[in-house]
Structure formats: structure tokens, C-alpha cells
Amino acid sequence: MTAELSDLYQEVTLDHQKSPRNYGTLDEPDGHADGANPLCGDRVTVHVKIHDGVATDVRFQGVGCAICTSSASMMTTRVKGKSLEEIDGLFSSFHDLLTGDAAPGDDTPTLGKLKIFEGVRNFPIRVKCATLPWHTLRAAILGVDEAVTTE
Ligand code: ZN
Questions:
Q1: Torsion angle of C-alpha atoms 67, 68, 73, 78, degrees rounded to 10
Q2: Domains of the chain, residue spans
Q3: pLDDT value, residue 81
Q4: Region at 27 (left for phi over 0; alpha for psi -120 to 50; beta for the rest)
Q5: What is the DSSP code (8-state) at residue 104?
Q6: CB burial class (10 A; 0-12, 13-18, 19+) of residue 146?
Q7: Mean pLDDT calculated for residue range 46-55
Q8: Which residue has the higher pLDDT, 6 or 21?
Q9: Minimum mean pLDDT range among 70-74, 77-81, 140-144
Q10: Interval between CA 132 and ligand 1 midpoint (Å)
Q11: Strand-pair category, 148-149 with 31-37
Q12: What is the pLDDT of residue 36?
């Protein structure tokens, strides 16, 4: 972790890294997918329950760096109870935030606490750590029952 990232960022990510939310698996998930980020060694598995177009439950499991784990943890708390359309929108906003397609300070109210990952955009090699859980969630939702890689 670099000193250039803000204290707030460190505080939140450390909290989620130490006690990840929604960690584990689901019995008979409607969708699940495995994701890997070979650059960093992050691996995540995402399980999702979908009812009437809403993600009623989301769990993740895996081995990852602080950014990957905290991103996955925050993602699960953010998308639970959201419609698949909303999740798609969140994914796009989050991706834009990290890849710089959105101007700094852009108004992205839907992201809420996820905006904390904005600093990651300054460390391109870490962007995939933060987006891997989201790519994997999307694959799980699409019902693509196969490995996802960031490469
Ligand atoms: Zn990583």
C-alpha cells in the first residue's frame, strides 16, 4: 500500500480487508463465476442469487491483495438488493472512475463509498485488482460458468 493513497481510503479498505462482508458461498446460486488477475495473483469466486431481476444475495470468496479484497467486499454490500440494470450502471460508473473515462470530481452520486477507489486510477497496475470482482460478478450474472481473466 502506498503512502500516496489517502488515510480515508486506507481506513476503509483495511476494514473491509480485515473483516470482508458477504464472504463465502451460496447453496444453489443462480449464477457463479471465477475470476483471476494473473498480474497480481488475485483470485475471486462470486456467487449470486437472482429473483425477479434483483440480486437478492451476493457472496465472494478468494485470495487477493488488499485492493481486490476490499473492492469485492464493498461491491457485495453495494449491489445486494439492486436490480441487474442498476448493477450494470454501477459497474460502468465504477469502471469509468478507475480507468479515467470520467473526469476527476465528476458527479457520480450512485457510487457512494465506492468513490474511495478513485485514487487507484493513479496506479494502473492496481486498476485490475479493483475491477476484477466486478468483472466476475458480471460474468456470474450473465450465467457464464467459466473462468474470467483480466488478460
Ligand atoms: Zn491485486
A1: 90
A2: 3-149
A3: 96
A4: beta
A5: T
A6: exposed
A7: 93
A8: 21
A9: 140-144
A10: 9
A11: parallel
A12: 97
C-alpha span between 147 and 31 (Å, rounded): 13
CA angle 109, 45, 85 (to 5 degrees): 35
User: 3-149 has which CATH code?
Assistant: 3.90.1010.10
From the CA of 115, how far away is ligand 1's center (Å)?
A: 18
* Dist. CA 127 → ligand 1 center (Å): 8
33 neighbors 46 (Cβ within 8 angstroms): yes
In the reported structure, the alpha carbon of residue 133 is separated from the centroid of ligand 1 by a whole-number distance in angstroms of: 11
Residue type, 74: M
Cα distance between residue 133 and residue 83, in whole Å: 18
Cell numbers of 92, please? 460502468
**Contact yes or no for 115/139 (Cβ under 8 A):** no
Tell me: pLDDT of 1 over 60: no
pLDDT at position 89 = 93
Mean pLDDT of 78-95: 94
Q: Which residues contact 10 (CB under 8 A, 6 or more apart)?
A: 1
- Report how far ligand 1's centroid is from the alpha carbon of 67 (Å): 6
- Cα 53 to ligand 1 centre (Å): 30
Tell me how far the alpha carbon of residue 96 lies from the centroid of ligand 1, in angstroms: 19
